[in-house]
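Dock adenosine monophosphate; give full complex structure.
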Amino acid sequence: MVLRVYNTLTREMENFIPFCGKKVNMYICGPTVYDHCHLGHARSYVSFDVIRRYLIYRGYDVNYISNITDIDDKVIDRAKEKGEDLFALSRKFTESFIEDMKALRVLAPDAQPKVTEHIPEIIEAVETLINKGTAYSTHKGNVYYDLMRSEEKIGTLSHQTVKGLLEGSGGRIEVENDKKYQLDFVLWKSAPQGETGWESPWGRGRPGWHIECSVMSMKYGSQQLDIHGGGMDLIFPHHEAEILQSESCTGKHPFSKYWLHNGFLTINKEKMSKSLGNFFTIKEVLDKFSPGTIRFFIVYTHYRNNIDFSGESLEEAARARKRLLNTISNVKHALNEAHKDGNDCRLTELINETRETLINSMDDDFNTREAIGNLFVFSRKVNYIVSNEAHSRAALEDVLEFISEIDGILGIFGEEEHEAYKNIPEGLPEYKIMEMIGLRDRAREGKDWVKADAIRDELKEKGIIIEDGNDGTKWRKG
Ligand code: AMP
Ligand code: ZN
């Protein structure tokens, strides 16, 4: 069977044929780093991680790029609000994000460029657009993309009319009085005195939201991507803006051959988001559930459908996953026992059949829900054979090897490999320990000894001993 993907651009299922043989340039929009990431972000990055892993499994040579938005209104506002240095703040949350992704077994991108490290390239792209006549600068030092120059392309990805876009933009389009047209989007934004900015031909300023992805995807990938992805909320204006800018810069169409968009993680049917305040950080959820359970919870839904989150839905995922883990234990247990020597055919056939059905499911627009359904059938049959029928040691080993082959795609079973969990006690990530030590330091500075002692005791209860010394507080496992 051939791999088929749903392309937002055509709104159809299409055969997956990259531009250049087996080479796949894949760009996934990264997070804006002004806070810890929440489970909605995990939903997006785990979904694309599975897609990437499956492409690798199918023999593609994947170049995976995912950016870090480390300058943006939200980052600036948060740094002001907290009285922190903007770069220190974005660095802290970038590290936090990378730590979360590692814990969730999301493979590190081949390139993870930051906006603030690509200002000259961004300025160059904005200049190109001005020279091509598709962008204009204003007396205020802003530069906008001139949408009227490519009016026919508006709605390419969102399949909406201009009226619909204006009504449904959800406030993601800046209202400025120096724009020619309301839908024009900003490429370069002037920075007021005292705010972070870089010198440019249009005065001190900083990049707009969309241009970074055009510039960095072309720098680290190609002028024409095979896959571009992100959450559905990015379809408009972000991804449409990327198409307009990139195609205008290079003159090449399409900027990306396939556009893939993940559905939302919702709470009470509302998108989990920082701005709505209805979020749980990945770290909070990792405190209570294992990375394997969180991944299982995410991939047990097709990536384009929404998932409604609740404590119960995660517990349910943990229980369902446990059924699969029990099969692994059964097989391991059987391996340690005197095996029932016999014909291996049943297990071997079962493995081959299951592999085929799994590939069919994944070839159908990465249908992980169905793939896991196949795994449940496999697990029930293995349980039966292991306890009722003759089987050889070699066949049992094949079952375990097959499970690990599938885990290479879904990442829902093994957990030992996580670096992030190597030196820290289960259930209390290093970040959390550092945060608690910071809170205790502040309590001590304010001579709030009761609070300081309570934090020390809480850490002790969780198996962490802290020691105060001349060069600060150190911690170790108790
Ligand atoms: P942001 O940091 O808001 O720019 O988001 C980074 C990526 O995470 C984007 O692709 C978003 O669409 C995605 N994302 C954010 N919140 C959710 C959510 N609740 N469900 C699914 N994806 C999300
Ligand atoms: Zn982007």
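Observed: Residues 4-262 form a domain with the Rossmann fold fold (CATH 3.40.50.620).
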